[in-house]
Amino acid sequence: GQNIDQPTEMTATEGAIVQINCTYQTSGFNGLFWYQQHAGEAPTFLSYNVLDGLEEKGRFSSFLSRSKGYSYLLLKELQMKDSASYLCAPRGNTPLVFGKGTRLSVIA
Amino acid sequence: DAGVTQSPTHLIKTRGQQVTLRCSPISGHKSVSWYQQVLGQGPQFIFQYYEKEERGRGNFPDRFSARQFPNYSSELNVNALLLGDSALYLCASSPHGGENTEAFFGQGTRLTVV
Q: How far is A41 from chain B (nearest CA, A)?
């Protein structure tokens, strides 16, 4: 089975940096995805990590440690439009399974 | 290019009724997955289909069924609806059934059971 844990809610200030952590346990491992979901909308792909280390993509970076079952999503230079839910989704031997998501609120 | 399209966008049904939700994947994508998302939770995996065959099934009762057609579109059927089936139903398509491919989501069907 799979167990995914991430904080329920976080609040950060516009222009700041925020780190959203995710710990997971899976049967097998075939990479970890991060998705962003604005209220009332579909999830959209942010990043994919399959090897240990940091993947940087503009203001967003994602880190993976397979031995620790740990990942984080780092958002820099926060903007109001970054207010959304962020979903951690490790892929084990089953199709993509999502955590409950972290609802991020960016305040002025 | 058209993304993943789902129909209908909103639906209201009565307890005990049956519902069919439809999904058209991105052109060229052969894998379709269905998810249920209850308010405040992450999407929960229901089914995956690849090349018209079921590749995975989540922890949902037999009232939930699905199929994939030769054109790779898919239908999700739910029988004997319960109030707890009220949720956003998301369809996601991938180029193939491999483990390292990202999923592209449709806008979802909002089902309300009264």
A: 6
